[in-house]
Structures are given as structure tokens and as C-alpha cells.
Amino acid sequence: MLSTKFDTRDLSIQEILDAPLGHVITVLENYLNCKIKLDLIEQNTSKPGSIFERKITITANHFPLIKAIIKFDKKILPKRIVEQLLQKRQFIGTIMNLNEIPNKKDIISLKVEKKKIIRVYQIKYDENTYFEISEEIRLDYIDSIKNEFGMKKGLL
Fold it and tell me: pTM of the entire structure?
């Protein structure tokens, strides 16, 4: 397992990386002082079969701060969780909380670039991989929002 820690002096980025699934919006709102929006873009099977993909985007001021693809296999998940996921009424973090699934990230890969962080991690339970999440965190857009809203509020 890789650590989410990397050499950064930006506590907001570290907190975004460490936030449990479903709590990233709260972290972003606290640091950016603006309205954060999470949209479910689509959910479908990637190929005929039991593996589903849910694509989401987290935006602020029309900037896509985080794009994520969450994969899950309906053969592995308990039936009640699959039913909740397929209804598309709740986000995965909420469904995990309702079903008392620990929100621990097993980091598979982490790549830090100048403008973005790309990482893949898994959420496991009872030795099964319930979810695999691939995400792209746009550092350049986060900085733009910080500059815009932080200066207005006297935070920089």
C-alpha cells in the first residue's frame, strides 16, 4: 500500500487526499470558501457483465476540480448495496456510511504532476474489493479558485 503523503506544503491538498470518500466536498468548501458541486455524470456497465462504472465530477465556479471513475462489481457487493447503487439516488460515500463499510483507502498508484494529481485506490471490506476509484485532482484549478475566492475573503 502506498501512502497518500507526498512532499507538499499545501495542507489543503493533503487534506483532500486524506479525506474519506464522501467528505471531499466538505474539505473543498472549507478551503476554497465557495460552493462546491458534485455531479453524477453517468453510471453504467463498462462491458456487458457485472462490473459497473460511476463517473462523477466535483466542480467549483464551473472548474472541474476532481474527476473520478468508481468501479464496482455487483457480484461482490451485498445485494442491498447494489440496489442502492443502481438507484443512483445517493453518492457512494453515503451508501458506505449507511451500510457501515469502513472508509479506508488502499492506494494502488499516485502520480503527482505540476497541474494535477492522478491516483487509483481501492475500498476493501471482508477481504473483497468493493470499489476501485481512479481520480484526477486538478491542482491548477484549485489554485485558481483559491486565488479568486481567497482574495475576496482576505484569506491569502
Answer: 0.84
